[in-house]
Amino acid sequence: MTRTVRRVRRGRSHPFATRWNHNTHYYPLLASLLPTTGSVLDIGCGDGTFGRFVAREDRRVIDLDVDASTVPAASRLQHPVLATAEALPFADAAFDAVTMTMVLHHVEAERALGEAARVLAPGGVLLALGYGRSEGWRDGLHEVRDLVTHRLVSRRMQAWDPPTTKAEPSGTWSDARASARAALPGCDYRRLAMWRYLVRWRKPGVTAPGAVVRPR
Ligand SMILES: C[S@@+](CC[C@H](N)C(=O)[O-])C[C@H]1O[C@@H](n2cnc3c(N)ncnc32)[C@H](O)[C@@H]1O
């Protein structure tokens, strides 16, 4: 049985089965890659759904977005900040983890990644989920996998369109990979099914308190 079919069979137990889209699909994966405790900065948080999913007593979330109409209200575990990804209003090494889900195609990617790296503590984890524009036959092959997986997975899910600003990517998948590698030397870039990539980077240095080092 292929990995895709196995994942589809598990579809009903997906935590976002009733609020499903190509981003929420990957929230459990992103959550599993976060340090178990510490502070998380979610850049371009939109309505704060990801922050709500991962926030808990020992993992506070700072929700940051440039759009005042979308930033979620403050709660016990989530703190909203109105700011731009390219000029973060935080000290160096302030966070144990930084997440960016579907934000990099809205911003100057290298600059925003540089800022994200700056505010990350040594040993901390940066996770960026994004997408790109296809060009060439290799991207065409990925698109076939994207489409087939979407057809299989989406029929078990209830589609959800959150009220956040959306944009089409101007850069290609290769551009996204190049800017990630330029801003985050040694980062792991991989294409995921359903038109997404994941960039994963651990900032060199001492491991953040509570961080779990997982094998790749
Ligand atoms: C496609 S939405 C993604 C929202 C959310 N992360 C998610 O997974 O659904 C992109 C978000 O990036 C925000 N954004 C756009 N430009 C930004 C910037 N320069 N700095 C911070 N956030 C920005 C938008 O306001 C929007 O909420």
Description:
The structure is a single chain. Strands 3-2-1-4-5-7-6 form a 7-stranded mixed β-sheet. Helix content is about 30%, strand content about 20%. The chain has helices at about 5-10, 25-30, 50-55, 110-120, 135-155, 175-185; strands spanning about 40-45, 60-65, 80, 95-100, 120-130, 190, 195-200. The model is unreliable at about 210-215 (pLDDT under 50). Helix 3 links the parallel strand 1 (about 40-45) and strand 2. The protein has one domain: Vaccinia Virus protein VP39 (Rossmann fold, 3-Layer(aba) Sandwich). The protein has 6 helices and 7 strands, in the order ααβαβββαβααββ. The longest helix has 19 residues, at about 135-155. Helix 4 (about 110-120) runs parallel beside helix 6 (about 175-185). About 35% of the residues are buried. The protein is of the alpha/beta class and about 220 residues long. S-adenosylmethionine binds near residues 44, 45, 65 and 107.
The strand order across the widest sheet is: 3-2-1-4-5-7-6
Oligomer: single chain
Instruction: Name the helix and strand elements from N-terminus to C-terminus, one letter apiece.
Output: HHEHEEEHEHHEE
* Class from secondary-structure proportions: alpha/beta
Net shape: globular
Beta-strand segment tally: 7
Radius of gyration: 17 Å
Strand content: 15-25%
Integer tally of domains: 1
Estimate the helix proportion, in percent.
Answer: 25-40%
The CATH superfamily is identified as: Vaccinia Virus protein VP39
Assigned CATH architecture = 3-Layer(aba) Sandwich
Distance between the termini: 22 Å
Could you tell me the mean pLDDT? 91
Sheet with most strands: 7 strands, mixed
Unreliable residue stretches = 212-216
Number of helices: 6
